[in-house]
From TrEMBL:
<dbReference type="InterPro" id="IPR029063">
    <property type="entry name" value="SAM-dependent_MTases_sf"/>
</dbReference>
<dbReference type="Pfam" id="PF01596">
    <property type="entry name" value="Methyltransf_3"/>
</dbReference>
<dbReference type="InterPro" id="IPR002935">
    <property type="entry name" value="SAM_O-MeTrfase"/>
</dbReference>
<comment type="similarity">
    <text>Belongs to the class I-like SAM-binding methyltransferase superfamily. Cation-dependent O-methyltransferase family.</text>
</comment>
<protein>
    <recommendedName>
        <fullName>Caffeoyl-CoA O-methyltransferase</fullName>
    </recommendedName>
</protein>
<comment type="function">
    <text>Methylates caffeoyl-CoA to feruloyl-CoA and 5-hydroxyferuloyl-CoA to sinapoyl-CoA. Plays a role in the synthesis of feruloylated polysaccharides. Involved in the reinforcement of the plant cell wall. Also involved in the responding to wounding or pathogen challenge by the increased formation of cell wall-bound ferulic acid polymers.</text>
</comment>
<keyword id="KW-0808">Transferase</keyword>
<dbReference type="GO" id="GO:0032259">
    <property type="term" value="P:methylation"/>
</dbReference>
<keyword id="KW-0949">S-adenosyl-L-methionine</keyword>
<keyword id="KW-0489">Methyltransferase</keyword>
<dbReference type="InterPro" id="IPR050362">
    <property type="entry name" value="Cation-dep_OMT"/>
</dbReference>
<dbReference type="GO" id="GO:0008168">
    <property type="term" value="F:methyltransferase activity"/>
</dbReference>
C-alpha cells in the first residue's frame, strides 16, 4: 500500500497549467522513517530490508566461522543486542588488515565479538589489552576465542577503563605505543577516553569509536528520543562535536553498523 509522503506543484512548460505531483512511498518504509526504533540497531539505514540486504549478501557469507559461532552464542544472552554489529566488524577487519597493528587496546569487550575479530587479524605475536567491567560476559565468548587459538594475544583486565588508561599513562614508555584502539564501553566517557587514548596511540595509528550515531537518534530532537536513549545520544553528539574540532585527528563519521567514528592520529 502506498502513502503520500509529500506533494508539489510542477510547471512542465512555460505558460501551461501547473499540475500537482504526489510523492508516494511504500507505507512500511514510511513507518521505518518515522519510527526507526522498531528495527534492530542499524536503524540509520532507510529500512530493515536494506540492513538485511547488506548482512545477507555481503557480511554473513564472508564472516569467519569463529565469529559466526561467537555471534550465535551471544544471541542467547539477554543483552545480546549490545554486541558490535557484524557489518561494523567487517569494516574493522579491513582497517586492521590495512594497518597490521601489533599493539592494540579495546574498551568494552562484552562477549568478545570485536575482540575476537581483532585477535584474528593481528599478527601471532600481537597483543590486545582488553578492558571491561564484567568478566562474566567475556567468559561467554572465551571458549570460542580459545578454540580459534588466539587467546594468547589477549590480556583481559576486569576494571572500569578510565583508571587503567590513567595507569598506562603514568609510564611514558606507553605513550604513542599503541597502533590501534577500539572504543565501545560507556558512551558517556568517550570524551574522557579520547583524551587519554590520543596520547597512548601513535601518530598514524587508528582510534575507532562505535555507536557514534546511537541508532540514528543523534539527528532527532531531544524530546522525540526515548528517555532511556537520551544519555547515550547526548554523549554521542558531544563526542562527534569534539572530534570535528580536534586537529590531532583526521576522521570519518561513517554510517556503518551503529555509526563508527574512525579517527587517525595525525599530531
Ligand atoms: C556495547 S558493549 C561492547 C560490545 C563489544 N565490543 C562486542 O563486540 O560485543 C559495552 C561493554 O562496555 C562495558 N562497560 C561499560 N562501562 C564500562 C566502563 N566504565 N569501563 C569498561 N567497560 C565498561 C560493558 O560491561 C559492556 O560489556
Amino acid at each position: 500500500m502506498k502513502c503520500i509522503l509529500g506533494s508539489f506543484l510542477s510547471y512542465p512548460l512555460k505558460g501551461t497549467a501547473p499540475y500537482i505531483v504526489l510523492i508516494l512511498v511504500d507505507c512500511r518504509e514510511m513507518e521505518s522513517i518515522k519510527d526507526p526504533s522498531i528495527y534492530r540497531n542499524p536503524v540509520i539505514l532507510q529500512s530493515e530490508d536494506l540492513a538485511n540486504y547488506i548482512l545477507e549478501t555481503s557480511v554473513y557469507p564472508r564472516e569467519p566461522e569463529p565469529l559466526k559461532e561467537l555471534r550465535e552464542a551471544t544471541s542467547n544472552h539477554p543483552w545480546g543486542f549490545i554486541a558490535t554489529l557484524p557489518e561494523a566488524g567487517q569494516l574493522m577487519t579491513l582497517l586492521l588488515k590495512l594497518l597490521n597493528p601489533k599493539k592494540t587496546i579495546e574498551l568494552g569487550v562484552f562477549t568478545g565479538y570485536s575482540l575476537l575479530l581483532t585477535a584474528l587479524n593481528i599478527p601471532d605475536d600481537g597483543k590486545i589489552t582488553a578492558i571491561d567491567i564484567d568478566r562474566k560476559t567475556y567468559e561467554v565468548g572465551l571458549p570460542v576465542i580459545k578454540k580459534a587459538g588466539v587467546e594468547h594475544k589477549i590480556n583481559f583486565i576486569e576494571s572500569p577503563a578510565l583508571p587503567i588508561l590513567d595507569k598506562l599513562l603514568e609510564d611514558p614508555a606507553n605513550e604513542g605505543s599503541f597502533d590501534f584502539a577500539f572504543i565501545d564501553a560507556d558512551k558517556e566517557n568517550y570524551v574522557n577516553y579520547h583524551e587519554r587514548l590520543i596520547k597512548l596511540v601513535k601518530v598514524g595509528g587508528l582510534l575507532v569509536y562505535d555507536n557514534t550515531l546511537w541508532g540514528g537518534t543523534v539527528s532527532w530532537p531531544e524530546d522525540k528520543v526515548p528517555p532511556n536513549k537520551r544519555s547515550g545520544r547526548n554523549a554521542a553528539i558531544e563526542f562527534n562535536k569534539k572530534i570535528t574540532k580536534d586537529s590531532r585527528v583526521e576522521f570519518a563519521l561513517t554510517s556503518v553498523g551503529d555509526g563508527l567514528n574512525i579517527c587517525r592520529r595525525v599530531a
